[in-house]
Amino acid sequence: MTLDKNFLWGGATAANQTEGGVLEGGRKLANIDVLPFGEDRKKVASGDLEMMEWKQGYYYPAKEAIDMYHHYMEDIQLLAEMGFKVYRMSLSWSRIFPNGDDKEANEEGLKFYEDIFNELKRHGIQPLVTITHFDVPIHLVKEYGGWRNRKLIDFYTQYAETVLRRYQGLVKYWLTINEINILLHQPFVGGGIVFKEGENKEEIKYQAAHHQLLASALATKIAHDIDPENKVGCMLAGGSHYPYTCRPEDYQEAIKRDREGYFFIDVQARGKYPNYALKKFEREELTIQMEPEDKEILAASPVDFVTFSYYCSRTVSAHPEDYEQATGNLFASIKNKNLPSTEWGWQIDPLGLRNSLNQLYDRYQKPLFIVENGLGAIDIPDENGYVEDDYRIDYLKKHIQAFKDAVEIDGVELLGYTTWGCIDLIAASTGQMSKRYGFVYVDRDDEGNGTLKRSKKKSFNWYKQVIASNGELLD
Ligand code: BG6
């Protein structure tokens, strides 16, 4: 058998893409709740269009999402039926600290997740908890400017400490911040940042990054102090860059683009800023405010394991204007003619997953965890909600084979695998419901119509068999 008997098989979701119940149980709005459906979504996500509350004339998919707030018992039951060993989920920050700077946590919010963890435990499913997955309480955005403000470190660590204490013994695996490098590409999503005219965006983004990196290190320390059994990971939006040609400058461009993401993980896993980043700050005259104690904070608490999402590889060139662009998971790249694409133009590359695993393992020498991977596709259900999703099975099968090769042939240390959107949910980039990833179909459309009924797709039983055989039976 290739994989360890304790290999953690499962699936992943995020609060803002599943829960709904946005104003229930004492919860208040977060940045992510005000991302509208439609063409303004991108501008809001990038921090170029201010949106601080729900406005007339817009549809906000996160408002109800798939209403997991009221369906979680049924949903966990389905995950358990597939034999999940782990369920990656996130906590909604504003469900626990509705304003973010509250003195006391919201008991109803804390209790909600406690019930979920107890239910998971009853089914023998280990939670893998992301403390923040693209969410910042909107009050912290309005009042403090989001993560550009150093005060966010205190608000985040208070929140982290609260949940780490409360769920001690129920949760062992923690991720501090989802896809931390997204901050550079979608600053409002990744950091609750809205830009003002004429601001130095690069400087603000890296200042916010500094705050997040400190907050992540402090949360790691708190987690270890509370319970030495806790394992804390960082999380990268992964997918390495290929040079479009073997021209040295294209290869150099690929290294540079990889480093935009590695920058964060270099700090979180190695405990210090890489020289190439310090040189960049100097060269581009970015003034990043750092306090004397910061170096020590970062050095004291590197993460225990490294996690990443993987959907596609990316292709770059020093001369991008010469080529056709492909869309990708939030980053633009050149279309790689050697690879097929999804309906959303993301390029399917299973071997790229093995390559990424090797690059990350070579670089950090820490256990890895693939916490997102999957195919966003249009599903056509029959009258019972059954979907014959062979395309999804095919995608997942190839990616599972790729990570098995990384373990068996290359010796990469891999803790587990959670497919993205194990139950259909709203897409982060577009807000669409029609971009589905799940083993479980949810009856809801892009406009918010539908019964929310859950039904099993063909991939449901397929994944169940994959888990039961510990990845040996892929056909
Ligand atoms: C990752 C995020 O970027 O990719 C998820 O962590 C997101 O929140 C996933 O849903 C897939 O992207 P999309 O846009 O298809 O939902």
Which ranges are low-confidence, i.e. pLDDT below 50, for 5 or more consecutive residues?
none
Strand content: 5-15%
List the helices and strands in order: EHHHEHHEHHEHHEEHHHEEEEHEHEEEH
Cofactors, ions, other ligands: 6-O-phosphono-beta-D-glucopyranose
- What is the alpha-carbon Rg in Å? 21 Å
Counted beta strands:
14
End-to-end distance, in Å? Answer: 16 Å
Task: Tell me the CATH topology.
Answer: TIM Barrel
Protein structure class: alpha/beta
> Would you tell me the overall average pLDDT?
97
CATH class (first level) name: Alpha Beta
CATH architecture name: Alpha-Beta Barrel
Largest sheet: 8 strands, parallel, barrel
CATH evolutionary superfamily? Glycosidases
Strand order of the largest sheet: 1-2-3-4-5-7-11-12
* Structural domains: how many: 1
Protein name: 6-phospho-beta-glucosidase
InterPro entries: GH, GH_1_N_CS, Glyco_hydro_1, Glyco_hydro_1_AS
GO molecular function: 6-phospho-beta-glucosidase activity
Pfam families: Glyco_hydro_1
Could you explain the architecture of this structure?
With 475 residues, this protein is α/β, with parallel strands linked by helices. It has one domain (8-468): Glycosidases (TIM Barrel, Alpha-Beta Barrel). Helices cover 38% and strands 13% of the residues. It contains 15 helices and 14 strands. It has helices at 15-18, 41-45, 68-81, 93-96, 107-122, 138-144, 151-166, 187-191, 201-226, 248-270, 275-283, 294-300, 350-364, 390-408, 458-468, and strands at residues 8-12, 86-90, 126-132, 173-177, 231-237, 241-243, 305-309, 314-316, 325-326, 333-334, 368-372, 414-420, 440-442, 454-456. Helix 7 packs parallel to helix 9. The longest helix has 26 residues, at 201-226. The radius of gyration is 21 Å and the shape is globular. The model has no long low-confidence stretch (mean pLDDT 97). Bound molecules: 6-O-phosphono-beta-D-glucopyranose (BG6). 6-O-phosphono-beta-D-glucopyranose binds at residues 14, 17, 178-179, 237, 309, 329, 372, 376, 420, 427-430, 435.
